[in-house]
Design a protein that fits this description.
The chain has 14 helices and no strands. The protein is 67% helix and 0% strand. It is mainly alpha-helical.
């Protein structure tokens, strides 16, 4: 029987329920603003994070005797430029800065390059023994670096590389952590169909890596490069063995001989040297931090 205009329509079972999808679409484009508590917590976190750097500047502006007194100084003193000049001249800080920049840059670039290539092979290239070889690479992360110091130093001595920068760069050209990090990223971020499509279009392996793998892996490469650069910049153990403070030192090796006197150590001069070694890293983050964060978030949002 045909339904007339007066016949009531059957009730929709979903009519009484809230339109969850519609409400989500309405609020998806809105910008949410942080409350006052969020800004207070962020301000406290910023103060706690910046206080060690501030106190380093304060300690570098006082004498060594004043730094070790109780209570410790909390306001800058008048000797900052005098301590900077003394620390710069006591050891060849300029040469140490150049050496550290060269070593950290080469190690970061080589680690990112080789780790990306190896990570792509472990993630997307099928070959016999891939799982076992990856397990061996990861297992090397459990070996303490102190165990390899003696044979590594013997090799460096036989090659005549003692007190040469290549003795620090070459053992760090690739890291197991970098290989595992890039492999884990490319497993999820790089579809195998994209690689197969590039090969069907006639692209050889180098072209696939340059035009497909590197653009997809750029966010992880930026993170890995930043971590490796900072770690290499602050590395002390092996450079202190392979290099000498009077020969061809890096910053951390040069700082080991800073502030030493006949019977005591001038802690103000040591902290002044630490301040000098920290400033280049702060400048790198100040100028490149936006690009690093942009690279990290580039692959985090799907269109």
């Amino acid at each position: 029987m045909a339904r007339t205009l007066d016949t009531p329509r059957p009730e929709d079972p979903a009519a009484g329920r809230p339109a969850r999808g519609r409400r989500f679409r309405q609020t998806a484009g809105k910008q949410h603003h942080a409350g006052p508590l969020t800004y207070v917590l962020l301000a406290l976190a910023a103060v706690v994070s910046l206080f060690p750097l501030y106190w380093n500047v304060v300690a570098a502006s006082h004498t060594g005797e004043r730094v070790v007194e109780a209570p410790a100084p909390l306001l800058p003193g008048p000797r900052l430029f005098d301590n900077l000049t003394f620390a710069w001249n006591q050891v060849d800080m300029g040469e140490a800065l150049v050496n550290t920049t060269i070593v950290a840059s080469l190690v970061a670039v080589s680690t990112v390059l080789f780790s990306t290539l190896a990570g792509f092979a472990f993630a997307k290239l099928p070959f016999r023994g891939r799982t076992m070889l990856l397990s061996l690479v990861v297992a090397t992360m459990t070996i303490p670096p102190q165990l390899s110091v003696i044979p590594l130093y013997q090799i460096v001595t036989d090659l005549g590389w003692v007190d040469q920068l290549q003795s620090v760069v070459l053992p760090s050209l690739v890291a197991a952590f970098g290989v595992f990090f890039m492999r884990q990223f490319l497993v999820e971020a790089l579809p195998v169909e994209l690689v197969e499509a590039a090969r069907m279009d006639g692209a050889h392996s180098l072209r696939v890596i340059w035009h497909v793998v590197f653009p997809v892996a750029r966010p992880a490469m930026a993170v890995l490069g930043m971590l490796v650069f900072v770690q290499s910049w602050n590395d002390f153990f092996w450079p202190f063995i392979a290099l000498t403070p009077d020969g061809n030192p890096t910053l951390q090796v040069a700082l080991a001989g800073l502030g030493a006197g006949n019977h005591s150590v001038d802690h103000a001069i040591v902290l002044t040297g630490a301040l000098i070694s920290t400033v280049p890293l702060l400048l790198v983050f100040a100028f490149l931090g936006k690009h690093i964060v942009g690279g990290i978030t580039a692959g985090a949002v799907k269109s």
